[in-house]
Amino acid sequence: MKNISILFFLFFLSLSAYAQNFTYGAITHDDYQFDRKTLDSNANAIVLKEFGNASIQLDDNTHSLVLVFEHHVKMKIYNKEGFKEANIVIPMYKDDSREETISDLKASTFNFIDNNFVETVMDRKAVFTENRSKYTRLTKFTLPNLKEGSVIEYSYTLKSPNLFNFKTWEFQGDIPKVHSEYLVYIPGIYNYNVSLRGFQKLTDQKVELSKECLRLSGAAIDCSKITYLMKNVPAFIEEDNMTAPSNFKSAIYFELSDVQNLNGGKTSYTKTWKDIDNDLSSEKNLGSQMKRKDLFKDLIPGITKGATNELEKAQAVFNYIKKQIKWDNYYGKYSTDNIKKALETRSGNVADINLSLIAALSAADLDAEAVILSTRDNGTVNKLYPVMSDFNYLVAKVNIGDKSYLLDATEPLLPFGLLPLRCINDQGRVINLKKPSYWIDLKASQKSVTNYILSGKMTTDGKIVGTLTTHSMGYSAFNKRRDILRYTSPDEYVEKLDERLTRIKITDHQISNLDSVENMLTEKYEVEFTINDGTNQNQFYFSPFFINPISKNPFNLNERTYPVDLGSGSDERITMNITLPAKYQLLEKPKDMAIGLPNNGGRYLLSSKLEEDTISVNQILQFNNAIYQPEEYLFLKEFYSRIIQNQKTEFLLKK
Q1: What is the pLDDT of residues 510-530, one digit of tens each?
Q2: What is the DSSP secondary structure assignment for residue 601, as one 8-state letter?
Q3: H-helix or E-strand spanning residue 77
Q4: Locate the Transglutaminase-like domain: which residues (predicted)?
Q5: Cα angle value 94/374/288 (rounded, 5°)
Q6: Which of 103, 439, 589, 616 has minimal Cβ neighbours within 10 Å of its Cβ?
């Protein structure tokens, strides 16, 4: 990531023309015949040209400053798979008093018919809006008359009251781009911190001076005119095991640092953490709620009754809050109203619940702090200077002896000290009411652990009858408990599981510790399934890889420029012992394997044998790291490839 701090002064040069846009509707044969092989031979669509123009202007109606953003895109569609790129979604901010608006929207599809380009103009009735959340509204439309080979084009103007973040520009998207250009005009009285994220480099950046681009209270203000250009931009391909794409896509971000007032003063928007600490300590929906020990003072003796040490007290308080307040599925670092109301209604957002937890822990004379963080799908936070809008979540931290525990009481099925995976994202900022805030690593406190044990015997008619026992801990247990509790009862869960398992029939079951989240979850199933159809009892093939087989490599790129982030380490073990009904020879079997990742990053072990009429198979798949860097990607890819290749081999048994 590059970080550039730019201070814009007043300049006295001639006004530059605003638009460096390309002409709408001027489709050429070069556009229509553009060879995708020059950029990406597998692309289903390619952006031929993309231009953005952003400036701060005085709104004639409200007489307030607004951001005016113009966006113009021309795109080539190569096949039906590329038709989805013609579904355009424009997110817009809204709240009770301010909202972003769109005007001058036009969209057309161009097809080459009888040696002429024929334009199909989108009907305005095809545009509709959708309220996505309390603060987000979507404008959606689809380009008409799509064919393989169509060129589509659209443009619009967005007007926004949000000057703090100016307007982000994403050079990189899910399809390649030939030319992506962003032109910004920033008045000299505004100072923005500008950051270029992502792996791709700018092709060109040009800074010019533009005179009298804005007039406020009769005063003419000069601008900096900055052009950012990126050519031949590859598509950003999302794979599994990653945090927010915004962390890695090549894009320009703006954050307002300060504004020079016309009277000579300056308003600063970039604060120090000392300023933020003071603000949050007195913030009525954060710091003030952390202090509400009075709400729990009389309850604590009953909650912690029987606890013999601080850890047991903390666990008791944690379990109490999990039961008292149900999460309403909203994130937040601030309480919606206050924790008293959340306790009364027994419902609240993330901050309502975890601020209640902090206050209750404090009432129990435990050392509790708040941690503000950004969830995995929200992106990483800026470490160079505080940007409160980067944070969207709050959890609790309790310090006991020389150990600290991070707690989130929104998920009743998670054990004490294990955060939801959504929170495992780089670092959070610890807010303490009595001392300066500080950074803390957000790491999973447990591995995801699963052990499968199959003990059975093969019958003379080619069936295996036996017991499959599964032990789960960490995130594995959490996910399994959540799956089971989606049903009205464990019996219904098993019934649906039996329907999904086409080869395996479940005849009986027992699930232990379903509600005891601090303990290992154990599932015990009596199963039967056929491995030999009976056509040849003397010789048959049998694959031992029917428990959680690896059939598809999750890593398929030639190169990955962003980390593989699993969230936590994992350990999966499979043990099988199957007794045969008669003497058999083992003519073929999968090769025993012992392969590892560099730097003790993980390993895969496989061993199998036939001994005294019993087939034994042992597998171990371990990932010791939560995060693997881009340079380790090809090792992971090869690691999986070798496992998959070996699992294609079967046992060949001969009587």
Answers
A1: 999 999 999 999 999 999 988
A2: T
A3: strand 65-77
A4: 299-380
A5: 80
A6: 103
- The answer to whether 351 and 342 have CB atoms below 8 angstroms apart is no
Q: Helix 310-324 and helix 350-363: axis angle, to 10°?
A: 140
CB of 507 within 8 A of CB of 497? no
Residue of 598, 593, 588 lying closest to 621 (CA atoms)? 593
Cα angle 226-227-232, degrees, rounded to a multiple of 5: 155
Task: Identify the bridge partners of residue 165 per DSSP, sorted by sequence position.
Answer: none
- Rounded to an integer, what distance in angstroms lies between the CA atom of residue 528 and that of residue 246? 47
- Token pair 């428990």 in the structure block, residue: 547
Of 195, 394, 386, nearest to 277 by C-alpha is: 386
pLDDT digits (tens, 9 = 90+) for 444-467: 999 999 999 999 999 888 889 999
Q: Which domains does the chain have, with CATH numbers?
A: 2-266 (2.60.40.3140), 273-441 (3.10.620.30), 448-654 (2.60.120.1130)
Two tokens, residue 559:
């190169």
Q: Which among 121, 178, 131, 186 is positioned nearest to 155, based on CA atoms?
A: 121
Closest CA to 636 of 587, 606, 595: 595
3-state secondary structure of 323: helix
Coil, strand or helix at 25: coil
Element housing 258 (H / E): strand 251-260
Per DSSP bridges, beta strands 427-431 and 87-93 are unpaired
Bridge-based pairing of strands 614-623 and 570-579 is antiparallel
The encoded tokens of residue 178 equal: 């030939």
Residues 327-348: b if buried by 16+ CB within 10 A, e if exposed = bbeebbbbbbebbbebbeeeeb
Angle, helices 475-485 vs 490-500, to 10°: value is: 100
Torsion angle in degrees (nearest 10) through CA of 84, 85, 86, 90: 110
- CB-CB contact of 58 with 216 (8 Å): yes
| Other residues' Cβ atoms within 10 Å of the Cβ of residue 215 | 10
Q: 60-76, pLDDT tens digit by residue?
A: 888 889 999 999 999 99
Of residues 195, 170, 160, 201, the one with CA closest to residue 67: 160
Total length of the chain? 655
Q: Which residues of the chain have pLDDT under 50?
A: 1-19
Type and span of the H or E element at 315: helix 310-324
Answer for the pair 187, 274: CB distance below 8 angstroms, yes or no.
no
**Cα–Cα distances in Å, from 198 out to 165, 172, 248, 380?**
18, 9, 5, 13
One-letter-per-residue 3-state SS of 517-574: CCCCEEEEEEEEEECCCCCCCCEEEECCCCCCCCCCCCCCCCCCCCCEECCCCEEEEE
Closest CA to 459 of 586, 577, 611, 578: 578
Task: Give the contacts of 82 (CB within 8 A, at least 6 positions apart).
Answer: 43, 44, 45, 175
Identify the DSSP state of 567: S
Contacts of 219 (CB under 8 A, 6+ apart): 262
Provide the CB-side half-sphere exposure for 321 (13 A, CA): 36
pLDDT, residue 20, reads 67
Q: What's the Cα-to-Cα distance from 592 to each of 456, 545, 623, 638, 649, rounded to whole Å?
A: 22, 13, 19, 17, 11
First-to-last alpha carbon distance for the chain, in angstroms, is 64
pLDDT at 533: 65
What are phi and psi for residue 139, nearest 5 degrees?
A: -100, 125
Cβ 317 vs Cβ 416: under 8 Å: no
